[in-house]
């Protein structure tokens, strides 16, 4: 890498794994490279809330990855505007999402645009991104092992529904193991249950998440600071109590 994670404004989580907390909504964007600090392909987890943010993330990722390298794969954790509207900035990347999210993003792009505007994105920026919104090319039903080369494999797991109808998590083996949770887990505020949430299924989704990551993993929320398994379990129990499910 030409620059360190910290120099680029990112948080290093493990060798070849980092994330950036985006402004305004504190949404997490993750980056996973081939094993170690260089080599192989590169996976971005979510893409920001506008094309401008997407282009900024692309430029930062290229600085981190070094000359001649770029983001080759994208995993969308769920279809909310602050996680998907920057995708078109990554031309040529292979995009992954949970089964059904492709149809939703094609059918409901106006709803995604309007949700962005309601949350403060300028209408012109939201409309521009929605017009070129990229639906996933590859759909994950259960689990999908993605080989990034140089000994690095990551696991994409469809553990939802929960926060949305299409929740995908990204498990990066290593020491420590890192789990990108999307908005199934939030640290900077109370987990948000919008109109597309499935409250009765959310605790079970977190049970599946914990089974994948185990007790010693780093859990990276969709919003907020990195947490541990005990935090995820406590949030799972709070959601079960909130929505009166077991």
Automatic annotation (TrEMBL):
UniProt-listed CDD domains: metallo-hydrolase-like_MBL-fold
UniProt cross-references to InterPro entries, sorted A to Z: Metallo-B-lactamas (IPR001279), NDM-1-like (IPR050855), RibonucZ/Hydroxyglut_hydro (IPR036866)
Pfam families (alphabetical): Lactamase_B
Domain of life of the source: Bacteria
Residue stretches making up the Metallo-beta-lactamase domain: 26-223
UniProt cross-references to PANTHER family, sorted A to Z: ACYL-COENZYME A THIOESTERASE MBLAC2, METALLO-BETA-LACTAMASE DOMAIN-CONTAINING
Name of the molecule in the record: MBL fold metallo-hydrolase
Species per Swiss-Prot/TrEMBL record: Streptomyces enissocaesilis
